[in-house]
């Protein structure tokens, strides 16, 4: 009777574990979440939540994150993700970003308008429809937010563009842009009705900028074929295991061959001749 003395083969376990890890890795890449959980997002304090605004608006510039000019800052009035949001009247919100020249970036953010901003835009559209003089109507104003990246104006979003029909409801905007410098500014510039008592507010939250092409280092949040080497390693481990297994079976059969023909003991059990 032959006794199976083949050792436990960790390679088979490694191969199986590698495949499982590969599957889990791809599942993790596919997950989406808030801007703070995205390791590829290069915007600092992307949700405006690092400051304590519970006691009132924060308008002090933080050189590491956001710079505020005019009527702009951080408050808790209408956050998309608690506790804070960025607010913007007639002013600016700016952050300097470390960029890769020649790289392409994906910009995403969420913007909402308050009821005064919406009312002013509705009055603007009504006056425009009736041919009325908007300059004589203190409530007539189509507020906007201008978005710039690395010196390039990407868009001017107006309050009457159809995305802001209910107060405080956020709408998402996305853009692609290329960089020309190692350091570039992301700027949101607001305009609001200058007439006293009719000045509205924009709300900004969940700002993301991800490198998507020609990046020096591909962000972890961007799906990449990083699991392919792991899969190749797993397959190589399995293939090597099969070769070792087949070789052992072949040598075992060769050793038993005399006993199967003449009834002699297998060569593997014969006493050593000392040579």
Q: Helix and strand succession?
A: HEEEHEEEEEH
How much helix is in the residues?
A: 25-40%
Instruction: Quickly name the level 1 CATH class of the domain at 33-213.
Output: Mainly Beta
How would you classify the helix and strand content by structural class?
alpha+beta
Write down how many β-strands occur, each being a DSSP E stretch of 2 or more residues. 8
Key words describing this protein structure:
single chain, 275 residues, alpha+beta, Jelly Rolls, 8-stranded antiparallel beta sheet, 3 helices, 8 strands, 27% helix
Structure description:
- With 275 residues, the protein is α+β, with helices and mostly antiparallel strands.
- It has a domain at 33-213: Jelly Rolls.
- It has 3 helices and 8 strands, in the order αβββαβββββα.
- It has helices at 10-30, 115-130, 227-262; strands at 67-75, 85-98, 104-113, 144-149, 152-158, 171-178, 183-191, 202-213.
- Strands 1, 2, 3, 4, 5, 6, 7 and 8 form an 8-stranded antiparallel sheet that branches.
- Strand 4 and strand 5 (152-158) form a beta hairpin.
- Mean pLDDT is 80; it is low at 8-33.
Topology:
Layout: H1 10-30, E1 67-75, E2 85-98, E3 104-113, H2 115-130, E4 144-149, E5 152-158, E6 171-178, E7 183-191, E8 202-213, H3 227-262
Antiparallel strand pairs: 1-2, 2-7, 2-8, 3-6, 3-8, 4-5, 4-7
Helix pairs in contact: 1-3
